[in-house]
Amino acid sequence: EVVTLAVLMYPLLRGLALQLHSALTGSYIPGSSSMAFINCLNEQIAKDIARAIMDKKLAAQVNILPKSSALYFWKGELEESTEILLIVKTRTSKIGELSNYVRSIHPFEIPEIISMPIDQGNPLYLKWIEENVPRD
């Protein structure tokens, strides 16, 4: 029983240990920040969504990448279009709120909103993300 409990508690205890270590040393907890990718139909929509995300303080930064070609299946048919890609840097804890908000304002029926946790990087930049996106 003790071994089972210890195994089940390991992720929680590891998380708490990482948070304590981070608080004491100022180091980055892997995965506490994320990058989200959002596709947009054109540059104006991309700028409007990026500004709305920033106005709601759901990100520290949004990059707007220029047009790229996209191939995808939609309603059983192969489609080709150009898209503008947003790369959003934020706290991982804000991804759900970010996704809900973007879906509420995005003109696409099913917008691409996917995220990846940031494992490592420039510690000063990662700290800057955390300082510029309010906690929950």
TrEMBL record:
The keyword Isomerase does not apply. One of its GO terms (biological process) is response to metal ion. GO terms for molecular function: copper ion binding. InterPro entries: Ion_tolerance_CutA (IPR004323), N-reg_PII-like_a/b (IPR011322), N-reg_PII/ATP_PRibTrfase_C (IPR015867). Belongs to the CutA family. PANTHER family: CUTA DIVALENT CATION TOLERANCE HOMOLOG-LIKE, DIVALENT CATION TOLERANCE CUTA-RELATED. Homotrimer. This is CUTA protein. The lineage of its organism: Eukaryota, Metazoa, Chordata, Craniata, Vertebrata. The gene is Cuta.
